Amino acid sequence: MRSVIKTILRTAAALAAAALLARAQFVDAGAQGQAGSKPQAVVYLFPEQVTIHAGKPSPVDLHFRVAPGLHINSHTPSDEFMIATTFSIANSQGVELAAASYPAGESITLASDPKTRLSVYTGEFVIHAKIVSASGNHLAQGRLHYQACDRNQCMPPKTIAVPIDVIAQ
Predict the structure, then answer these.
(1) Which of 18, 23, 80, 101 is most exposed, with minimal Cβ within 10 Å?
(2) What gap in Å lies between CA 100 and CA 11, rounded to an integer?
């Protein structure tokens, strides 16, 4: 009788362990497969919509956030080989970028090369753009091009969409 109970307990423990392992693998696979589960290095915060005067350069402040633990090169990186952060608008939507003013970068050094100073953006930053639009409603397809890095390595350059609903009156 004792051996039967031991066999039942071993079988129950093995089944419980297998069930927990299967559940853990299912949860992990589901988390990896979900869209948006990996945080973006840079996100566009706002504005989603602006109202401006048609045909005149109008100021629009574009707000972005760099993920914690990362930085991106500023618009004026400290080395010509580094990829500058740039904002652009495709001219085909009746909206064009007349000018863009970028914030000054924060000066940092990395432990791997303490003699080299980098000009970067961290946290939140604002690009002051001037846009010109034909009269009417337009969806401007803005783009932010950047290269994100952490303290050890850089990721490939990336371009994110910056959609702006422009109402020009």
Answers:
(1) 80
(2) 68
b/e for 144-156, b at 16 or more Cβ within 10 A?
bebbbbeeeeeee
pLDDT tens by residue, 18-44:
333 333 333 333 333 345 456 799 999
* Dist. CA 60–CA 130, nearest whole Å: 6
Residue 39 and residue 18: Cα distance in Å, rounded? Answer: 31
Pairing of strands 106-110, 158-168: unpaired
Q: CA–CA separation, 56 vs 58, rounded Å?
A: 6
Cα-only R_g, the chain: 25
- Topology of domain 42-168 in CATH is Immunoglobulin-like (2.60.40)
Residue-wise pLDDT tens digits, 86-116: 999 987 679 999 999 999 999 999 888 899 9
Q: What is the pTM of this model?
A: 0.76
